[in-house]
Design goal:
The protein is built from 1 helix and 6 strands, in the order E-E-E-E-E-E-H. It comes from Streptomyces synnematoformans.
Length: 78
Amino acid sequence: MCFVTEGIGLCQRRGGPVEAIRPGDRVLFEADEEHWHGAAPNRVIVHLAINEGDADHDVVHWLDPVTDEEYTAAPATG
């Protein structure tokens, strides 16, 4: 789960659209759901990420970096 406290960010689930996230937004990613999140272009983001692990799920499983093409496919963030 990700809580945005300041700034403007972007997130995307594998195969889904890139979405803008803003202060007050809460984004829930399911266990083992491939996704990325970070600051929008020329912006900053402050967020609180909460990860829960159990016997079947690692707390964090880092994947490959987001490509420039994936990142620039983002919606306008105004």
